[in-house]
Amino acid sequence: MSASGPSRKANGDRIAELARRIPVNRSTVTTAGRLTAAAALRRVPFPLRPPTVPGGVDVPVAKSTLGANYDTDWARRYPARMARVLMLEGLVSPAMQLLAAPRLRGLDRLTDLEGPAIFAANHHSHVDTPLVLSSIPEPWRHHMFIAAAADYFFGNKLTAPLSALVIGAIPIERTKVGRKSADDAAALLDEGWSMLIFPEGGRSPDGWGQEFRGGAAYLSLRCGVPVVPIHVEGTGRILRKGRSIPRRSPTTITFGRPLRPTDEEDSRRFATRIEAGVAALADEDATDWWQATKRAHAGDSPSLQGPELGAWRRTWTLGDRGPKRRRATATRWPDLD
Amino acid sequence: MPRPGFVLDVDRATPPVLFHHGENFKLEKLPPGRSRIIYPGEPLEPLDDIEGAIHHALVNPHGDSEPLPALLRPGMRLTIAFDDISLPLPPMKRPDIRQRVIEQVLDLAAAAGVDDVELIAALALHRRMTEDELRHAVGDRVYDAFAPHGLLYNHDAEDPDNLTLIGTTDQGEEVEINKRAAESDLLVYVNINIVSMDGGWKSTATGLSSYRSLRHHHNVKTMQHSKSFMDRHASELHSSNWRMGKVLRDSGVKVFQIETTINNNVFGTEGPMSVLQKREWEWTTRDRVAFMGMKAGLDRMPARTRRSIFQSWRAPHQMTSVQAGEVEAVHEVTTANVYKQHLVPVEGQTDILTMGLPYICPYNVNSIMNPILVMCLGLGYFFNLYRGKPPVREGGVLIMSHPTPWEFHPVHHPSYIDFFEQVLAETTDPIEIEAKYEKSFAEDEWYRHLYRTSYAYHGVHPFYMWYWGAHAMQHLGQVIIVGGDVRAVRRLGFKPASTLQDALEMASDTVGRDATITHLHNPPILMADVT
Q: H or E segment at B98?
């Protein structure tokens, strides 16, 4: 006791002196010299710890196994498929029924569809994937892979296997042009797998759609499989971009007639037609089939991308589809001031 | 390759044969050596690309007609009429053929900029279709687009403001049809031909007409001279409709007829019901177990439950052909396609014709098969499923199997109840019934009100059902119903029997002990081509 008193005091004086002399804050000075976890690891002898690199030696950079390079073959083997079926039917579908109460329209348009297909939907929310996946009927539902953004879903070692297992995702590059993504997707389509893709490339930032990219159209042309346009309405209200807590809201999923590219169409023009198909479904959902059909033939279907206006007017034009006003916090009696 | 229908001579090795018995079944052993069974053909292969076939039909019309796109223009009045709930039987799985065709017609109309479009369920004097039934027929998309605006509705044959007298045939038959249809620039009729009786001018001249017009061919004389009404060229019913069609055409009513045929796939190729369209000696162990299980369950169920199970069955029929254009040219092709599925060559007539009547006929979809409809299905429809001559000789015996309950649907068949209680209690002679009672039922204000505002068949409809059997009644020496309600069977003027063996014994009084027997293995539908 007698020794510790002066010693603690002396230490305190030393820290005060150091803090005065060195332009660092007090906490840095306080922790200086302590044994950190990294320092403790460094004390572990090799080979229990990774080797250090001698100076002047170039270590070859290991090829990343994440992102677009993530190998998802294992997720299409039977144990993983079985697990996915159980999760989809036992967990995801009931959750979507509870959260989104989807109303399915136009399933009869798939009556004559045989073999694999590319299901192309508009994209508002993270809820879109499980919702559309649990709404697509058999025989496609359990023989399906999803084109998911490599940088987002396959960015680390936790989300990559989860994405592959739970939703059957494969990584698709969206920030640069890469052959691997397209080759992988085409190989799976050729093997008889169907594909779910959101051709907008990402969730809607403001409630309106974005221009459709050419991936779905390209794969359709390359593999000779039809594209089924799908319009998803209402998921923006459940979990729009920027929110983290979902709220319950009814949704409508409208399936369109399968589209096949004509001889004259390239992937760009076919992508435009797919987008027009989804826009016609959106119009059908907002009005009725006859009005939508007439407008589609006249080329007057309301655009998915909304009017070219200023930000607030675009949001204003969304009307009921836009973000709901946050309710003011109720002030309860007796604190009415 | 589906096998065609054929006639089996029954021998000792022939297994018991399936008889439909309302919402149940029976297996009956037919006497070997003097019995034969007419089996229907297996379901024809459906069209590979149904949507493509419909489009092809619309742009490549038969007869003197332009392609549909050339007939559509902005500002025109377009009316689309379609067959009602009586077709097909049983109702088909979604999507219904009518939906597929109507959507394509509307698609072309939208492309041509046609705005003034109305859709009419051509139900003549049948009951109105409910919202669910209309949705099933035309699909949710078409229903939601037109019905809320009053542009999709049931034809009303008792609405004087919406009927128009087009003219009179050279035999004095008045032609009165739906005004909107008559005054449109183009009437597109979407039909389903389940049997060869359907389609042709009968679609418009009957489906969109009124009692004033219908009475000229829906009468005893016409039916007795239609041998049979399933064979258009030997049917007075059709001759009258064709005369009316000529009046329609000459008066400028422009009709673009779209006719479709379906295959015999009534009970499917999988599941417990599939056994019902297999030949008995080809039943596998699974089929036999399924049949026994199904029968054991049905035997123990209340009639109401059985009825609701059967009425909820949606048949996996598929389209085998679609043709469009000028009415008569189209109908010739349609009839040939119907015959491909239904006709079975049969040599000579027999003394006794047996048939098991199923749970459904054109007039009890989502309803009850009352005794009058039992008579109509047996003596009207099944008996007339022949070309040439009936499979049973004149003066022969008809044995039908059906429970024939004394039961009526009070909403759908109110006039049937009075017809059964009052008219049939007096007489079963169709000529006397027509002369004495038809007018009062046809013009009864209460029945008229129920037909127009509720879901009731027209007051005169039970008479037509009775007339439908007039040719068979005239032809046959005796009619026996096996397993029917005894009082109801007697009220119909027929003889009740507990078992088929009893019925055959009773028939021997009329046709002798060694009478030959023909069993009509129907459904799936067949048509005997008797030479």
A: helix B97-112
β partners of residue A147: A170
Of A250, A248, A269, nearest to A259 by C-alpha is A269
Q: Domain holding A283: CATH number?
A: 3.40.1130.10
Nearest CA in chain B to A106: B141
Cα gap B84→B133, rounded to integer Å: 9
Range of the domain at A155: 67-310
Kindly report the nearest CA distance between residue A293 and chain B, in angstroms.
6
Give the strand pairing for B17-20 and B77-83.
unpaired
Are the beta carbons of A197 and A146 closer than 8 angstroms?
yes
Of A105, A290, A297, the CB nearest to B140: A105
Could you give the ipTM of this predicted complex? 0.73
Q: Is residue A21 part of a domain?
A: no
Residues of chain B with pLDDT > 70, as a percent, come to 100
Residues of B (129-158) whose Cβ lies below 8 Å from A: 139-142, 144-146, 148
Number of structural domains, chain A?
1
Residue of A103, A105, A108 best to disrupt the B interface, most CBs of B under 10 A: A108
User: Does B509 reach chain A within 8 Å, measured CB to CB?
Assistant: no
Closest CA to B102 of B122, B82, B88, B116: B82
pTM above 0.90, yes or no: no
Angle, helix A289-298 to helix B131-146, in steps of 10 degrees:
40
Comparing alpha-carbon positions, the chain A residue that sits nearest to B116 is A290
Determine how many CB atoms are found less than 10 A away from the CB of residue A231. Answer: 25
Cβ-defined contact of B113 to A106 (cutoff 8 Å): no
User: What structural domains does chain B harbor?
Assistant: 6-43+343-530 (3.90.226.30), 55-262 (3.40.50.11440)
Per-residue pLDDT of chain A (337 residues; tens, 9 = 90+): 444 455 667 777 777 777 677 666 666 666 666 777 877 877 777 667 777 676 776 767 767 777 888 888 898 899 999 999 999 999 999 999 999 999 999 999 999 999 999 999 999 888 999 999 999 998 999 999 998 888 888 888 899 999 999 889 999 887 666 688 888 889 999 999 999 999 988 887 777 888 888 889 999 999 999 999 999 998 988 888 877 888 999 999 999 999 999 988 898 999 999 999 999 999 999 889 999 999 999 988 888 887 777 766 776 677 655 555 444 455 556 555 4
Q: Which of B51, B115, B144 is facing A288, going by the closest CB pair?
A: B144
Q: Which positions in chain B touch A257 (Cβ < 8 Å)?
A: 51
Cα–Cα distance measured from residue B442 to residue B434, given in angstroms and rounded to the nearest whole number? 11
Whether B110 sits inside 8 A of A290 (CB atoms) is yes
Test mutation, A288, A291, A295, A300, chain B, max B CBs within 10 A: A288
**Residue A96 belongs to some domain of the structure:** yes
Enumerate the residues of chain B whose CB falls inside 8 A of the CB of residue A108. Answer: 94-95, 99, 139
- A121 falls within a domain: yes
A175 lies in a domain? yes
**Residues 6+ away with beta carbon under 8 Å from B357:** B20, B21, B22, B374, B377, B378, B382, B400, B401, B402
3-state helix, strand, coil in chain B (%, to 5): 40, 20, 35
- Interchain proximity B110–A289, CB inside 8 Å: no
Of the candidates B473, B492, B496, the one whose C-alpha atom is nearest the C-alpha of residue B390 is B473
Query: Between these two residues, A311 and B46, which has the higher pLDDT value?
Result: B46
Question: Using a CB cutoff of 8 Å and minimum separation of 24, what contacts does A288-296 make?
Answer: A288/B141, A288/B144, A288/B145, A288/B148, A289/B141, A289/B142, A289/B144, A289/B145, A290/B106, A290/B110, A290/B117, A290/B142, A290/B145, A290/B146, A291/B145, A293/B106, A293/B107, A293/B110, A294/B110, A294/B113, A294/B115, A296/B110
* DSSP single-letter state for residue B381: I
Residue B426 near chain A (CB below 8 Å):
no
